[in-house]
Specification:
Length: about 210
């Protein structure tokens, strides 16, 4: 991950209040890395938790979804890195394709890496992940506050069950025990469009019928 804004010169030459040229992700003075949580109604319903690390979205499949309750330890199984643009993907992956099913963007925003070494020095986020423990503060529309991702099984293949992590809310002001700490995926709405999985699927089907 880079601390310097690679588009600093580009941004310095333009007033984005006056030009409609693209600002780019790191524009607007906000160069913090992004996160996204998608709900994916594939062969099994799951949440996809993705953190921007460098030029990709590091990804975990979280069957039960992230919880705001620090007492919940949520299994998070690593999946392949996704391109940054995947943050915006909402729609239907055709049946028969990898991950066939409906996807909504449940939450998105930025995060701040928090990992420090024993001397209190910040650890680069990719390094923290490589070591198997990373803490970060989410600033999304729904998810807020500190979370930790911790690798508890370092498998290398499907035959040994593969690598497995836990996603856990840290105790802080944003932690919540009362009420619903995890959204019901079938009722949850897209942070981008307000639609449910069902609505996205129905609209896709309608659009296909019109062709
Ligand atoms: Mn998925």
């Amino acid at each position: 991950m880079t601390d310097k804004d690679p588009l600093r010169t580009y941004h310095g030459k333009r007033d984005f209040g006056r030009t409609r040229e693209p600002r780019g992700r790191s524009g607007g003075g906000d160069d913090r890395p992004r996160f996204v949580v998608q709900i994916h109604d594939a062969s099994t319903m799951h949440f996809d938790f993705r953190l921007q690390v460098g030029g990709v979205l590091k990804s975990w499949s979280v069957p039960k979804g992230p919880s705001t309750d620090p007492g919940d330890k949520r299994l998070a199984v690593p999946t392949e890195d996704h391109p940054l643009e995947y943050e915006e993907f909402e729609g239907v992956i055709p049946e028969g394709q990898y991950g066939g099913g409906t996807v909504i963007v449940w939450d998105h925003g930025t995060y701040r890496p928090l990992s420090h070494d024993r001397r209190g020095r910040p650890v680069p986020f990719d390094e923290a992940l490589a070591r198997g423990h990373a803490t970060f503060r989410l600033d999304g529309s729904k998810l807020r506050g500190e979370y930790a991702l911790t690798r508890f099984r370092g498998g290398t293949s499907d035959s040994d069950g593969g690598e497995a992590w836990l996603l856990v809310k840290t105790r802080d002001d944003a932690a919540r025990k009362a009420g619903r700490s995890t959204p019901d995926p079938r009722r949850a709405r897209s942070v981008r469009t307000g639609r449910t999985l069902h609505q996205v699927a129905a609209e896709a089907q309608e659009a296909a019928g019109e062709r």
